[in-house]
User: Which sequence fits this backbone?
């Protein structure tokens, strides 16, 4: 016997299907035929489906089958949660020994906030709602007020955490710590900041938000692009003041004997250079060309690209020693062409402003005054000679170093600063370090520390999995989830399939795949 669907075409062309249970037999002539045992009615009639379901269960009972399941009646999906990202981040967390370094009452609270920063950065209140979408039984009982206490608890351990992380980062991510990158950035604060007056100040905003108070973050990174330490400074502190503090602290905290400090132009000052040399530290520092004495600048730049050595199609380098100091002049012909085009565009803009603008505040605000000829605050004309002299800078930058490294290595190491700039972009966008709404200075610093830990793990994961796109990897990890399925009242937690990129991450991190049934 078997179930058969019989079709009938009506006069109007519509098709009606009927369900029948039929038996096969052969006629006296030996031809195969069907005999109807039971008619169940029209296929689209709900009563026919009920008859079929009832008959199926009765037959199953007669046959001794007790676990026959009707998907529409006996099976329900209770919930689905994500598991992939927290498994991978926890593995890196353990590899860096943070499970031991941060052992204590709020260990899981900090890890939860870090995973949230990596996957779906939110406020602490929203983080609690996010927690309910993630499968991690250890986080089930975490309360909102405990997250704020965890920030205070975390800050008490900052120095020890960074010290122990430093050496683990070197080993886990195979990082060379003989060369360190340092830079700072500003982070805007959304609020009055009256509860952290010593930290939140108005200052030069790298976010172009001069209307907001801010703080400064200094980031110390390996040349491989992994952060090892951070410092938070008042919002009105300039880079020149923060740099000596970080140098001295890194030397004392990590016991670094030989380090080459690679810093951007904002760090250069006679006092900073004297400080580094007094500490017998090596450095590669960008020079602000426009602030150099004109004769000195001409000695370095006024030679029409003569004496350069070609390192690549877009990088020519020459070396000069002046007054006992070693300078490396770099030239990028592609960038030079772009600078020339931008300068011509700037000429057009400033000419138009001279004609159209009646409010002269734009002169000072945008730094245009040096390109204009003024008489008693009246604009007479554009100083085209001054603009023409700017071409001496096209495609060039100057480095000052006291190292004995080859000029090619000096140029290459300075270009590695782009990694720290990328890290700042991650810190301020993907990890969403802002907006900051915490009130007290300790809470603000704790929030920044959580973001720093998340940045370490994110960049560390990228370091481990260079062959895959990081954004695609995170998307695939978010597809690794678990679901609670209830079958006839019996609950089972089942894992979803694991996408290819996510499977690769598990393999590279030597992380066992989660079981199909949890």
Assistant:
């Amino acid at each position: 016997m078997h179930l058969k669907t019989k079709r009938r075409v009506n006069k109007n062309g519509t098709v009606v299907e009927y369900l029948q249970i039929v038996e096969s037999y052969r006629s006296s002539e030996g031809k195969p035929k069907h005999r109807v045992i039971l008619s169940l009615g029209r296929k689209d009639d709900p009563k026919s489906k009920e008859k079929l379901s009832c008959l199926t269960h009765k037959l199953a009972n007669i046959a001794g089958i007790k676990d026959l399941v009707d998907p529409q009646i006996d099976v329900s999906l209770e919930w689905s949660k994500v598991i992939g990202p927290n498994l991978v981040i926890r593995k890196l967390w353990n590899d860096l020994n943070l499970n031991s370094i941060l052992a204590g009452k709020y260990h899981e609270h900090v890890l939860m906030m870090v995973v949230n920063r990596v996957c779906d950065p939110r406020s602490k209140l929203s983080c609690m709602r996010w927690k309910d979408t993630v499968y991690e039984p250890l986080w089930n009982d975490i309360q909102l007020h405990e997250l704020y206490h965890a920030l205070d608890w975390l800050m008490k351990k900052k120095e020890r955490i960074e010290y122990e992380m430093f050496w683990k980062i070197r080993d886990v991510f195979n990082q060379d710590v003989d060369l360190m990158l340092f830079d700072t950035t500003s982070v805007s604060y959304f609020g009055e900041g009256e509860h952290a007056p010593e930290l939140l100040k108005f200052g030069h905003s790298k976010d172009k938000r001069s209307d907001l108070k801010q703080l400064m973050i200094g980031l110390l990174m390996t040349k491989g692009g992994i952060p090892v330490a951070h410092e938070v400074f008042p919002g009105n502190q300039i880079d020149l003041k923060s740099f000596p503090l970080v140098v001295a602290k890194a030397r004392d905290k990590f016991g670094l004997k030989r380090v080459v400090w690679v810093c951007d132009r904002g760090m250069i000052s006679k006092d900073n250079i004297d400080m580094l040399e007094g500490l017998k530290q090596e450095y590669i520092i960008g020079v602000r060309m426009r602030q150099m004495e004109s004769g000195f600048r001409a000695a370095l730049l006024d030679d029409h690209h003569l004496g350069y050595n070609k390192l690549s199609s877009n990088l020519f380098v020459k070396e000069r020693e002046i007054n006992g100091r070693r300078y490396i002049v770099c030239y990028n012909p592609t960038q030079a062409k772009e600078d020339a085009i931008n300068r011509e565009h700037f000429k057009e803009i400033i000419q138009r402003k001279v004609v159209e603008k009646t409010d002269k505040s734009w002169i000072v605000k945008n730094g245009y005054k040096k390109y204009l000829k003024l008489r008693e605050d009246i604009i007479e004309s554009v100083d085209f000679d001054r603009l023409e002299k700017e071409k001496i800078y096209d495609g060039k930058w100057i480095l000052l170093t006291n190292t004995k490294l080859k000029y090619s290595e000096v140029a290459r190491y300075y270009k590695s600063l782009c990694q720290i700039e990328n890290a700042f972009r991650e810190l301020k966008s993907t990890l969403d370090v802002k907006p900051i709404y915490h009130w007290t200075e300790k809470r603000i610093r704790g929030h920044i520390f959580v973001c720093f830990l998340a940045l370490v793990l994110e960049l560390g994961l990228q370091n481990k999995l260079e062959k895959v796109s990081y954004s695609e990897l995170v998307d695939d990890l978010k597809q690794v989830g678990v679901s609670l399925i209830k079958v006839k009242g019996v609950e089972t937690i089942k894992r979803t399939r694991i996408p290819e990129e996510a499977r690769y991450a598990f393999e590279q991190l030597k992380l066992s795949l989660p079981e199909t049934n949890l």
